[in-house]
Amino acid sequence: MRHSHGMQQWAGKTALVTGTSSGIGAAIASRLLADGMRVVGCGRRPERVAEVLTAADPSGESSLALGCDVTDEAAVKGMFAAAKDRFGGVDVLVNNAGLGHAGTLADGTVEHWREMLEVNLLGLCLCTREALADMRARGGFGQIIHIGSMAGQRVPPGAGFYGATKHAVRALTESLRIELREAGDPIRIGEICPGYVETGFAEHYFKSAEKARETYSRFKVLEPVDVAEAVISMLACPPHVQVHDILLRPTDQPT
What local confidence, expressed as pLDDT, does residue 4 receive? Predict the structure, then answer.
């Protein structure tokens, strides 16, 4: 028996990508549009999300740009309602929104810890819950992808709290896989964990443009399009194949 596979199985289907205003999220949204999917993009900077989607979809027929704080439950529910109203529902969710703050446990601040918890975990869980409800209501095949981090595979020095949130994403990925299998859902879950990727992350993390340049200049790091290609690889598998984890390092990254 032959199974549909490749990105053609997602043609005309809808993906919701969080954190699409720049970097990895922007690259993923653009790549999915190029492969024939419809894309709902969201971020805290809706004007920037609109710019990204317009560049990839000039007619605007296949995309919808929304402003959304993923830590706000009402806003997340409103985003999924808007996606349903425009495109009939969401078939793929890419939980890309995330952030980090450098700092040891001895000198970290509650404000930074809380923001990492709320964006990296609470926002991811809220979006996942709403996507599952939507996919299940329509009884169709779906896919959820968490964009994690290599920091969730080991603990980088000085990144204990950020690393802890990314270790938790690993646990949530496996927990959801078990839930879906026990429920007999035709929905797949997977996580992609990149190493160093040249985005605005490092400048925000270190609070220093100079430190960010230094971080990305030590060796050839990944580009956002590399992570987007990993998303495509995961999605393109036939329905009976689930790629659970992709660990994606720059070739020269030592740890």
Answer: 54
**Whole-angstrom Cα distance, residue 153 to residue 164?**
10
What residue ranges do the domains of the chain occupy? 7-238
**Enzyme catalytic residues:** 162
Using CA atoms, how far residue 190 sits from 113, 141, 144, 247, in Å, is 25, 14, 7, 11
The reported pLDDT for the residue numbered 2 is: 43
Based on the number of CB atoms within 10 Å of its own CB, is 47 exposed (0-12), middle (13-18) or buried (19 or more)? exposed
Instruction: Count Cβ neighbours within 10 Å for each residue of 144-156 and write b for 16 or more, e otherwise.
Output: bbbbbbbbbbeee
CA 197, 199, 204, 209 dihedral sign is positive
Give the DSSP letter string of 123-135: IHHHHHHHHHHHH
Residues 6+ apart with CB under 8 A from 208: none
Q: What is the per-residue pLDDT for 158?
A: 84
Instruction: Please tell us whether the domain made up of 7-238 is placed in CATH 3.40.50.720.
Output: yes
Q: Which residues of the chain have pLDDT under 50?
A: 1-3
Q: What is the pLDDT of residue 1?
A: 36
Tokens of 109: 């601040």
Structure tokens at 252: 């020269």
Q: Where are the alpha helices (DSSP H) in the chain?
A: 23-34, 46-56, 73-87, 110-117, 124-138, 160-183, 201-206, 209-217, 224-235
Q: Tokens at residue 234, please?
A: 């995961």
- What 3-state class would DSSP assign to 93? strand
